[in-house]
What we know:
alpha/beta; 28% helix
Amino acid sequence: MEKYNKIYSASNDKTEIRLSPSLKLVWESFPSNGHILDLGCGQGHDSLYLAKKRFKVTAIDSANVAIDQIKAKKEEFKLDNLELICGDTKDFIIEEDKYQVIICRHVLNFLNKENALELVENIKNKIKVNSYIIIELFTKNDPSFSSDRKFASYFEEQELLKIFYDYKIIYYLENIILDPGHPGHTAPHKHGIARIIAKK
Length: 200
């Protein structure tokens, strides 16, 4: 994670805390006393926003610089309901029936395919009934798939949707999107993504 420590060190995010597009669609349906797990939280916009709305949030990321940046905002906003963990998402033990929401945005592509699929199954098996899973990932339609700067794994078209065949699908999008820019790649660029919101 040294690469992302350098990226986050160079871009200590001063922008307004805001939800990702997927979370905007559904967060108001989360149970008010719900416990949310954010796997691979990055600089923590989703986690901080939801914690400010008084949800109990556990956020984990392997980049210690990002966790330190979130910790500073946690202290600024006095968010005692936000737990921060610096660690590898694939090694994190998800307690059964503990979480009403599990977020896993742009994490799976950093794992080899076997570990990525194992993590998805772990999420499905451990989350409480009537709870939400939000996953975003890159498909083989992502331009990086044909480049020499590949991620560790990619998903096939409709693969994510098929994995959740036994869940209620609240929202699904698979498309080529224009990303306005982000830490590490600030110029506008395209991504081939799949996004799903599923309810157990």
